[in-house]
Each structure stands twice: as C-alpha cells, then as structure tokens.
Design a protein that fits this description.
heterodimer; A: 172 residues; alpha+beta; 8 helices; 4 strands; 45% helix; elongated; B: 452 residues; alpha/beta; 4-stranded parallel beta sheet; globular; binds flavin mononucleotide; binds iron/sulfur cluster; binds FE2/S2 (inorganic) cluster
Chain lengths: 172, 452
C-alpha cells in the first residue's frame, strides 16, 4: 500500500474529529451526487457535538470531502453561524430582534436578559452556561417576542418569563 | 367570513403530525389516485388548469415553471422545496410543517411525480428544530409505508426525499442562493439565465417551490380543478394576461393585534378583514397606523389603504411590492415609523450577501444614516438620500442580481413616501439646531452608539 505524506502524519497525530463524528458525516455521502454538498451537514454535525467548529475540524472535514480547507472555511465564514474560537454556551439563546418581535418590546427584553446575565448580546457568560445571540426573524412572530434556546421555542416572552429562565439556567 | 379550512384542516387534531391521523383524514388519497390513474403530464395539466400560483412570494404560475424543464431529459431532475422561511413576519410554513408534515410530504411526492424528479430536497432553515423533527419523522413513516423510496405504492416510480438544513442566512431562501447553499458553497445567488429549470442544482434541471405550494397541489389533485377555481379572485376578463389569484391562502398575522396567528381564507380578502375578522382587531383598542401586507419586503401601507385586497395584483396599486408571503405585520398608532425604518434597514444590511455593490453598500449606508438620525443627528436631506438608495437598488431598477435588495428598497420607499411628515417631525424634534444642514457628516457605528 502506498503511503502518502498526509496519511503518515495522520497516523502520528491523533485526528481531531472522533470516529463517531466521522461516521455521522459519512452517512450523508449517499444523499448527494457531490461531496461538496456535505459541507453544511458536516459543519452542523461538528457544531452540534462540540459547540464550535475550530480550524482543525475545518481541515479534517476538507480532507474527508476532498476539498481545499479554504473551500470549507469560505462556506463556514459566510454563514456567521459556526463559532470558531471557543464553544458556545450550554444554552444557546437566540433572541429575535426583527420587526414583529421588536414592536412588541423584544429588543427591550433582550437588553434586560443581557443585563441579568451580565453580558452583552453576542457574548457568552463566564461560566460558559449561556450564549446570547441577537437573531433575525425566527419565524415565530405569532409568539412575539420569541426566543429560541437550543431546540426549544420560548413563546411570547415577558420579564417574568426571562426571570424564570435565568433562574432555571442558574440552578442547572 | 364563513370558510372551512382545507390546508389547516388537520392542525387541531391530536397527534396531527402522525401518519395514522393524516391517513384517517383522507391523507395520501391524492397520491394513490395520481399513481393509479394519472400520468405525470396529467398531474401537471391538472395543476395548470387549476391556475395555482406559487406561494413563496412571487406568485409565479406553478405548472408553467414545471413546464420549463427540458422535455425527455435523461435526468436526474431535482425538486428543491423551499422551507427557508426567513422573511420577517412570516411563519406559516412552520405551522404547516410542525402540525401537518405529511401534507407537505404528499405534496412533494405529487409534484416530484409531475416533474419526473427522482431526488427531492427540503431546504429547511436551522431555526425550526420542531419542524425538522416532525418532517424527518414523517419522511421516515412515509418510507416505511411505501410512499417514498423504490416503486412507490407498487408503481415503477421512485423518489428519495432528504432534508437539508440551512445555517441562519435569509439569502438561502432566494432560489439560486438556495442551490448554491445546497451545493456546499456560500449562498451567492446566480445571475439568470440560465434559469434553474434548465441548469440548477448540480447543474441539472431543477424546480424550486415553496412549502405551501406543495400543500395546494395535494388538494388540487384530491378535490379537483373546479373546487380550487371556486375560491379566490378569478382572472379579469378584460385583461388576457391576468391569471387571477385562485385558491385558499394562509395568512400569518403578527404585531399589534389581539390574536396573532396563522389563518386560512380565500385569496383576495381585504387587509381590514384579515386584521379584524381573523386576528381579532388591533390590540389595546388602538387604531392601526401602518400594515405590512406580505412580509417586510413588501413595504408598508397606511390605515387609509386597508380595504386593499390581498391578492397577486391589488397591492401594487398602493405602492407595495406585491402579495409576498401574505404575512401581515400590524403597527398601532403609537409605534414610531423611524423605529420601523431602522429595524428594516438593519435587517437587510445584516442579510445582504455582499455580492452586488449597490446592495451591499446601499443596505449598509441606509442603516448607518438611520443610526445617526436615531442618535439625534439627522438632517432633512437624509430622507432624500435614503429615498435615492431606495430608488436605485434592486432587480427592478436593474442594478443587482437578486430580489433581496428590492425587498430592502420597498420599506424605505414606501415609508418615506407615506410617512414623510412623521419622519421630518422626528428629525426636527431630535436635532432642532442642525436639521437643515446639508454638509457631509460621518455616520455612526452600528447599534445607535450601542455595541451590537
Ligand atoms: C431574498 C429572497 C428570499 C426568499 N426567501 C424565500 C423563502 O424563505 N421561502 C420561499 O418559499 N421563497 C423565498 N423566496 C422566493 C424564492 O426565490 C422562490 O421564488 C420561491 O421559493 C418559489 O416558490 P413558489 O414558486 O412555490 O412560490 C425568496 C426570494 C428572495 C429574493
Ligand atoms: S442583491 Fe444583495 S443579496 Fe442579492 S445577490 Fe446582490 S448583494 Fe446578494
Ligand atoms: S419577527 Fe421575531 S419571530 Fe418573526
């Protein structure tokens, strides 16, 4: 068997992505006629498990999909969705700031939540529990002001509901 | 309004998202009928005869779009179902996918059959986790029941359906941005032609349709053309090019109303009916000041224009971009149109993909000018600058590749045109000594001086 340089270094350095992550990414291959189409699913798979997609992961995804790392990084950076420097908090809070929520005091509530958490929108609390992100319309305008925390939609937010949410987070 | 919902008929049933409940209500009957009795061309012909127009925003006749696919193509042909739903104020596809996912699956299979598609993708925005769970569960059930996969219901038709999740970018809803995103690239819309029907996903013929369009197809096949054409606004006989606004429509109503929500009614009800009869009127006993008829991009209408019909041709008469998504946002008499304008411009500045200079710069400068105005340093001349941006960015003036910038322009144009006195008052009140100035001034950073 021929050994390329890349393969031999790979056996020396432990891969960043676990076997589980690699298998999850490979499971998407049959869905598309091109490997490049797997970039977004792969980024999601890594981001969902690690909370971020560091450069090491980008390079390994690129190698798996036979792409240049720059191609994966280009797609990743376009979306502003995948943090690269440090993992997102355990609770990823998206608070809607678009019109239907904003006109129902949504942005006031976002400032209130930020102040309670002691951070600014876009930041993560020091204990790594909560990342607060301003979001554009979450498609839940019937429940304005809307807030999405990981996979759970918080509907028709009020100060009281924010208080209860912060209490829940702190007791976790 | 006495109207019995069809598209939303199932949503209040317990476990409405499960296959057994869907089948008990007549689900997959249309698919059985089509595979047994109809050729793909018969399905296409039926949809053509119904007059169905796409529900994704532009109102393009669905069967006409399908008929642009090359004849006798060796394949593959792709169907992309647009579930990116990110237009501010719009949420009806979410309600459909969460509460009645099988209706969407059945519509996709029927449309794929009519277009001879063998692989379909549902491009679903990431911020819809429950829709993702429900749609994936429905797809799994459909495979097990023989509605998807090889030899569907014993026929020789085969179809695979996959969900592809987005990553929080509005531009992925634009059809060629969607294609680029699906291919794993940055979602930069393509210059057309070639249109996707000729060269689309993976350079193959591709149809892109909205979720609600898929749902309509089910009922057209199930209940027939005459039923569909009995609802809505028939074509104007004096205008041979008018194809009418036929069929049922979902209206999402949010903002300052008593009962925000997703409602079904015929196309062509008035804005006033939607607000008063569907959404329980403006909240707190107040009067409406401004209403957005079909998602933020369609621009605003005033309280005097509320008798306008929600159909594919009436809204242009009051200066709006069109019916859009038919999702209304109501603002009451106390809401500041300056806040509205800033919110709108910030959205488009954030969501412009950056590919075309007029859009990238125009959306950002409009936000920065408004940022300065809100910080008390506005001049009356700024409204003219904003109007100039509004009049020059977009496909309609011919300066950009996609319609995002038309969507950015319309709220600017319509607000300045219809609410100029209020905007001038704001500027005079907040900048009493400098509002007449015309000299160049620096813009502020984002967020009105606040970091964002
Ligand atoms: C910036 C932009 C965003 C769009 N977003 C969506 C969307 O989220 N969902 C959608 O169905 N159509 C969206 N569209 C319209 C699509 O490009 C396309 O016309 C539509 O999906 C076609 O479906 P239909 O023929 O069934 O209406 C968007 C268009 C633009 C310009
Ligand atoms: S108009 Fe704007 S969003 Fe559309 S392609 Fe050009 S820069 Fe991108
Ligand atoms: S505007 Fe907030 S969810 Fe739509």
């Amino acid at each position: 068997m021929q050994t390329t340089q890349a393969q031999s270094t790979e056996t020396l350095i432990k891969p960043f992505l676990s076997q589980e992550i690699r298998s999850a990414i490979e499971a998407y291959y049959p869905r598309y006629p091109s490997r490049r189409a797997v970039v977004l699913p792969a980024l999601h798979i890594v981001n969902e498990r690690l909370g971020y997609v560091p450069l090491e992961a980008v390079i390994e995804i690129a190698r798996m999909l036979s792409l240049a790392p720059a191609q994966v990084q280009d797609t990743l950076s376009f979306y502003q969705f995948f943090p690269q420097d440090m993992p997102c908090g355990k609770f990823k809070v998206w608070m809607c700031r678009s019109i239907s929520c904003s006109c129902c005091e949504g942005e006031v509530l976002m400032d209130y939540l930020a102040q309670k958490l002691g951070i600014r929108p876009g930041e993560t609390t020091r204990d790594g529990r909560v990342t607060l992100l301003p979001a554009e319309c979450l498609g839940a305008c019937d429940f304005a002001p809307a807030m999405l925390v990981n996979d759970t939609l918080y509907k028709t937010m009020t100060r009281e509901k924010i208080d209860a949410f912060v209490e829940m987070v702190q007791s976790e | 309004m006495t109207y019995k919902p069809v598209l939303l008929a199932n949503i209040h049933k317990e476990n409405s998202h499960k296959l057994a409940i869907y089948e008990a209500g007549g689900g997959y009957r249309a698919l059985r009928k089509a595979l047994k009795e109809m050729s793909p061309d018969d399905v296409l012909g039926t949809v053509r005869a119904s007059g169905l127009r796409g529900r994704g925003g532009a109102g393009f006749p669905t069967a006409l779009k399908w008929s642009f696919l090359p004849k006798d193509h060796p394949g593959p042909i792709y169907l992309c179902v647009n579930a990116d739903e990110s237009e501010p104020g719009t949420f009806v596809n979410r309600v459909q996918m969460e509460s009645d996912p099988h209706q969407i699956v059945e519509g996709i299979i029927l449309s794929a059959y009519a277009t001879k598609t063998t692989t379909a993708y549902l491009y679903l925005r990431y911020e819809y986790p429950l829709s993702y769970q429900r749609m994936q569960a429905a797809i799994n059930e459909a495979y097990s029941a023989g509605y998807l996969g090889k030899s569907i219901l014993g026929s020789n038709y085969a179809l695979d359906l996959f969900i592809h999740r987005g990553a929080g970018a509005y531009i992925c809803g634009e059809e060629t941005g969607l294609i680029e995103s699906l291919e794993g690239k940055r979602a930069w819309p393509r210059i057309k032609p070639p249109f996707p029907a000729v060269e689309g996903l993976f350079r193959k013929p591709t149809v892109i349709n909205n979720v609600e369009t898929m749902a309509c197809v089910v009922h057209i096949i199930d209940r027939g053309v005459a039923w569909f054409r009995s609802i809505g606004v028939p074509p104007n006989p004096a205008d041979p090019r008018d194809v009418g606004s036929l069929g049922p429509k979902l209206y999402g109503i949010s903002g300052h109303v008593n009962k925000p929500g997703c409602y079904e009614a015929p196309l062509g009800i008035t804005v006033r009916q939607a607000i008063d009869e569907l959404a329980g009127g403006v909240w707190k006993g107040r009067k409406p000041k401004a209403v957005i008829p079909g998602g933020l991009s369609t621009g605003v209408m005033t309280a005097d224009e509320l008798d306008t019909r929600l159909d594919f041709s009436s809204l242009m008469k009051v200066g709006c971009l069109g019916l859009g998504t038919a999702c209304l946002i109501v603002m009451d008499e106390t809401y500041s149109m300056m806040d509205f304008l800033y919110n709108s411009c910030r959205f488009y500045a954030h969501e412009s993909c950056g590919q075309c200079t007029p859009c990238r710069e125009g959306t950002h400068w409009s936000m920065m000018i408004l940022d300065r105005i809100k910080a008390g340093r506005g001049r009356l001349i700024d409204l003219d600058y904003l109007a100039e941006i509004g009049n020059t960015i977009g496909i309609i003036p011919g300066t950009t590749i996609c319609g995002l910038s038309d969507g950015a322009a319309w709220p600017i144009k319509t607000t300045i045109c219809k609410f100029r006195p209020e905007l001038e008052d704001f500027i005079k009140r907040t900048n009493p000594t400098g509002y007449v100035g015309t000299e160049a001034v620096p813009a502020l950073a984002h967020g009105n001086g606040k970091p964002h």
